[in-house]
Design goal:
This protein is an alpha+beta fold and 151 residues long. The chain has helices at 4-12, 108-116, 128-133; strands at residues 16-20, 22-24, 28-35, 38-44, 52-54, 69-73, 79-92, 95-105, 124-126, 137-139, 144-148.
Length: 151
Amino acid sequence: MINKKSFNKQISEGRFVKIKLHYIKSNHFKVIAKINNIRGWFIIDTGASNTFLEQTYIEKFKLLNTNLNIKAQGAGPTQINAKIYKNCSIIIGDWMIKRHKIATIDLSPINGALCSAKLKKIDGIIGSDILRKGRAIIDFDKNYLYLKKPS
């Protein structure tokens, strides 16, 4: 656990990257991220174990072919068909990770709900795999995500 004084010192020393979060009326935060250098909108989901892309965006985000199919488990009882893509680069603000795996799933239920609420669709979900790697700190009052720069 990091205390406020230590955190502020690490921010001033440039050890964390400060990333603007966009609060939307569905009570989510969205962030701009790049997957393989392609820009997209992603919901921050601390409850998602992995980072996901919409399955129809394989070409858009230049994902390399894979034969790795899995069954992902959501919060509900139903398993979700997913496909894993390796060696992806992820950039969020000035924070970057190379050679990371990303799963593709059907995000149409989520995007359908967003559209019903007159909100824009998302390209994917930033999950706890990325948030943990970046030792994420979310400032809910000021709408910022902080990710620690790799050593």
